[in-house]
Amino acid sequence: MGKTAFVFPGQGAQYVGMAKELCDQYPKAMEMVKMASEALGIDMEEMIFRGTDENLKITENTQPAILTASVACLQPVIESGIEADFTAGLSLGEYTAHVYSGTFSFADAVKLVRKRGKFMQEAVPQGVGSMIAVLGMEREEILNVCALAKSYGIVEPVNFNCPGQIVIAGEAKAVEKAAEIALEKGAKRTVPLSVSAPFHSSMMAPAGEKLKAELEYINIEKMRIPVFANVTGEIVPSESQVKDTLVHQVYSPVLWEDSVKNMIGKGVDTFVEIGPGKVLSGFIKKIDRNMTVLNVEDKASLDSALRVLKG
To answer: Are residues 115 and 161 in the same domain?
Structure first.
């Protein structure tokens, strides 16, 4: 059998009731939600299990909620004795990967990502920036499209998710223009994302600065499991570089496709998406359909994943 990677979702995967079934059945999973409530001084059970979509969509709520739900879903997997060879996460999910790897504590992470959400929201006023997914175009073509729309303002590729799916972000007018040009130049379609700011664009630099100051207080431990960084698509080489990669990640493109290809290059043939939704599973299948892709977000998916993993 080849190697296994645990991957963790980012913003956009949230839904009210996520992880509830596993929390109801596994005390260790519920313990994580209680720990998050304690760390933040917020009733996370209420927010995650019974809250409103609107409240969960607010970035500073979304980020700790997804992190908490993902770490809760991870607990029964750990209890079953399954360990990954590598780990990664999309954007916010990179923090979950570090919690799994033991780089920093769950309590620290949950406080940090709440602030990260707040900083990202504050960096650009609502409505000034936007994000659009462009389907059916390659990297070079997208770079060309962004260059052509540059006279309208900032627009950059910010998420390289999988072949034929790249997200662009920046100032709303420029992003809209780039999407128009992309369609003229043969993109299959463009999909506006319902986000409150142009995440991972250079416009997020102020959030990076604030995050850097917060990271000063975080204690970094030895990584038990190699973590792939969004910024490089490669393994974070040492503990001393963890903070830097997380600061840069806020205002740099997410190289998800590169990360997945590099994990496959290291012998990974099984990916387990742990946490709400199956967004990453979809990307991974498009990157290489020969991979075994599993997910864990409720009892049924946990049971079927464990059957495969225990072989």
So the answer is: no
